[in-house]
Amino acid sequence: MATPTNTQFDIRGVNHLALVCKDMAKTVEFYRDILGMPLIKTIDLFGGRGQHFFFDIGNGDSLAFFWFAEAHEAVPGVSAPKALPTMGDFTSAHGSMNHIAFNVPAEKFDEYYDRLKSKGVEVTKILNHDNSPTGSSAEVTDDVFVRSVYFFDPDGVCLEFASWTATFDETDVAHEAARADGSRADGVVLKAEKLLAENDARALETVK
What CATH fold (topology level) applies to the domain 82-167? Predict the structure, then answer.
């Protein structure tokens, strides 16, 4: 499978993701002191409106938080999930950010899972996501493509440590997309992907 390439814009990953916290001091204590993310930039917003702090999450990417002097309270189940995956309802509203998954090395996943627990972070069981009907396995098998553990930050933001364990190919794009009413949009995914693959193959032949 050819490496997917954006031919429209040269987008180079995530510059930063900006969230909103209730207490910046608690946020710093959690992300810097518990998760170990370096605090790299702090801003007091003009006019006493609040603060904007940035944490380094690796690869030149940042996680940022606003603290606003006047902000609405969180609405679990709307602005963010009420519960962690496997522990209850983890749906959230259209346009919301459901969770952030931090990429961690596969060979350190179990060590990091134990480290989170040793720091007093409430975590889910490990989910070994696979292609089975249930979507996960109790063991790491050849069908597992990512390992996950989920936990909340002080504001109820759902976080995940995730480790890829497989390389995707054309067989991994295998489902038509759902429309708003739950019906499947025939041809939006599968037909288009087939045409894209055929175009890539023709382009390679032209180069040869």
Answer: 3.30.720
